[in-house]
Amino acid sequence: MSELLVPRRFCGPTSSGNGGWTAGALAALLDHDGPDDHAAAWPTVRVTLRRPPPLDVPMPVSGGVATSEQGEVAAAEVVADELTAVEPVSWGAATDAAATYPGLTSHPFPTCFACGTGREEGDGLRIFPGPVEDDSEGRTRVAAPWTPHPSVAEDFHTYGDDVRRASIAVMWAALDCVGGWAGDLTERLMVLGRITARVDTLPVIGEPHVVVGGACGSEGRKTFTAASLYDADGRVVGAAEHVWIAVDPADFA
């Protein structure tokens, strides 16, 4: 049996873990082979978040399920889903979009590791997605530039080279909140309920990347979005799809 612990650094709301980081950390514990070269990818994994992930609390993981004293927190499984990449955006367009990031004016979770405006450079990812042109099918998109900081480098070399790369959990975090901002996070409070992600390669520390999110519709309390991460050469580094759940703001006061 393995163990999952979400350090306070990787919070979303002040008192619980960032959904993407938590899901990625759990996905990394699944019993599957990682790539041994740059051409191979990790399998597509779906993680369902049952309740807000506690911070600094060791959670036993068995059969892909992380459990706290309050019950199941998250469940991960390898799936055969085909994830379609959100259409790319240039670095220049993403940089311009970040200047119009709605979170700069009003942010429900400024402590968020991925998109929080209250996090310093080198502490949080500071991925600030702003609106860009709709895609070719008329779907809303947002985009942000992101250069992985040395502080988010993996603790071990997954690859056989000496290039420093961001960890799997950080990669999932980068693919997380951009979806919420592509959805209706500016109109109603939402938290991540499910994320399905595919990692093609881990992003290189210090190299420019672009994160793009796209809206995929809504149904009742659920909002559906997608995200893709591109490297400096315009290649897809990873992709994700999300289900967001509208919540009562009083629950996250």
Fold and architecture overview:
α1 (19-28) packs antiparallel against α3. The model has no long low-confidence stretch (mean pLDDT 92). The protein has helices at residues 19-28, 91-98, 168-174, 177-182; strands at residues 2-4, 45-49, 59-62, 65-68, 71-78, 130-132, 141-146, 190-199, 209-219, 222-230, 236-246. With 253 residues, the protein is α+β, with helices and mostly antiparallel strands. The longest helix is centred in the N-terminal third of the chain and has 10 residues, at 19-28. It contains four helices and eleven strands, in the order βαββββαββααββββ. The chain is 12% helix and 29% strand. An eleven-stranded antiparallel sheet has the order 1-3-4-5-2-8-11-10-9-7-6. It is globular. It has one domain: Hotdog Thioesterase (Thiol Ester Dehydrase, Chain A), CATH 3.10.129.
Globally, the shape reads: globular
Sheet/helix structural class: alpha+beta
* Unreliable sequence segments: none
| CATH class descriptor name | Alpha Beta
Query: What's the CATH topology label?
Result: Thiol Ester Dehydrase, Chain A
**Average residue pLDDT:** 92
Q: Strand count, sense and closure of the main sheet?
A: 11 strands, antiparallel
Largest beta sheet: what is the strand line-up?
A: 1-3-4-5-2-8-11-10-9-7-6
From the N-terminal CA to the C-terminal CA, the straight-line distance is 35 Å
Please, what is the CATH homologous superfamily? Hotdog Thioesterase
Q: Provide the helix percentage.
A: 10-25%
Radius of gyration: 17 Å
* Topology order in helix (H) and strand (E) letters: EHEEEEHEEHHEEEE
Number of helices: 4
Named at the architecture level, the CATH assignment is Roll
Q: Provide the number of structural domains.
A: 1
Q: Quick one: how many beta strands?
A: 11
